[in-house]
Design a protein that fits this description.
With 121 residues, the chain is mainly beta. 0% of the residues lie in helices and 45% in strands. Strand 1 and strand 2 form a beta hairpin.
């Protein structure tokens, strides 16, 4: 996506300055390898997990947000890659927004995640 615009800046002395701003933007190319999450029968209080991968095929950083705020029985889990023996951690961009998960993907990278389902009464 390219852009090329002219802007006018009004200076204090009453003079105007004309600036040309041009550039390009690379659109994100993010893909999830799991098209459908089918959990089958899961009992209340039990937990089921389906692994999936998010791949950023573009060269720029991308942020993927999962809005599960209306689905309290679901959560996104991303393993802690810095310490593989540590417990898994949830990525949440805002503490005030439960079940909102933000994952930042550098260009040409893949993150392995899972969608967990833990039904409540």
């Amino acid at each position: 996506e390219k852009f090329d615009v002219m802007i006018t800046v009004q200076l204090r002395e009453g003079k105007s300055l004309h600036l040309r701003i041009a550039g390009s933007v690379q659109l994100p190319q993010v893909h999830i390898d799991q098209g459908l999450f089918r959990f089958g029968g899961v009992y209340c209080g039990a937990k089921a997990s389906i692994p999936f991968s998010i791949k950023n095929e573009g060269s720029t950083r991308a942020q993927v947000t999962f809005n599960l705020s209306q689905m309290r029985d679901f959560s996104v889990v991303v393993p802690n890659v810095e310490d593989p023996y540590a417990e898994e951690e949830n990525f949440s961009p805002e503490d005030e927004s439960p079940n909102m998960y933000g994952i930042v993907l550098p260009g040409k990278s893949t993150k392995h995640c899972s969608l967990e389902f833990c039904p409540t009464a």
